[in-house]
Design goal:
Blueprint: H1 4-23, E1 27-28, E2 31-32, H2 39-49, H3 53-67, H4 77-88, H5 94-97, H6 102-125, H7 135-149, H8 152-170, E3 179-181, E4 184-186
Antiparallel strand pairs: 1-2, 3-4
Helix pairs in contact: 1-2, 1-3, 2-3, 2-8, 4-6, 6-7, 6-8
Length: 194
């Protein structure tokens, strides 16, 4: 069973990784890789590690709040709410990630990318100030956003794989991610634990 101390350490590490990852903007061949952050991986892992949904949700919320002290504003209250929600909702996929199987974990990362792209761009289009409120305006909005989305799924997959691998290897969660099931407790790899 995970101790409160190890969970507290994991909470602080998750927040730190998310803040640093949001502030660091990687480049490749001189071009910024927009939206390559650990947010989806951290939120998925928080949902998998922390049994309390509010504790899990506090990880991305604190990370966004801290990093937003340095990053530019969202431009509107609506966009701010949508960004917070889109970066926090992957915690609900954490239960699926508890299976320890890579397909649901990486699928959760890809779903997180797609939901972020769809919701934030819809929030950009809805007010009608940047794009007309028409089908053509919606298409223009999503088309203009594609360069920002291009690297996001790749970043989410890499960060998520690194975070879930790190959980197992670092010993921060000594028995891996433990899940209590009707047949006993199992770790991230699906192995029975005591």
């Amino acid at each position: 069973m995970k101790s409160r101390l190890s969970l507290a350490v994991v909470w602080f590490v998750f927040v730190a990784v998310a803040v640093i990852g949001r502030l660091w903007q990687p480049t490749w061949q001189g071009q910024p890789l927009w939206n390559v952050t650990p947010m989806a991986g951290v939120a998925l892992a928080a949902g998998a590690v922390f049994p309390n949904t509010l504790v899990a949700a506090s990880v991305p919320i604190f990370a966004i709040g801290i990093s937003n002290l340095v990053l530019p504003a969202y431009g509107s209250f609506l966009m701010g709410i949508v960004v917070f929600a889109a970066m926090t909702w992957p915690i609900f996929l954490g239960k699926i990630a508890r299976s320890g199987k890579w397909l649901p974990i990486l699928g959760g990362a890809l779903a997180s990318s797609l939901v972020f792209f769809l919701t934030t761009n819809l929030a950009c289009w809805v007010p009608g100030s940047m794009y007309p409120r028409s089908f053509e305006g919606l298409i223009a909005c999503f088309s203009a956003a594609l360069p920002f989305y291009r690297w996001m799924p790749v970043g989410d997959l890499v960060w998520t794989a690194a975070i879930f691998t790190g959980l197992k290897l670092t010993g921060l969660v000594p028995s891996g991610i433990c899940v209590i099931t009707s047949s006993g407790q199992t770790d991230l790899t699906g192995q029975k634990t005591t």
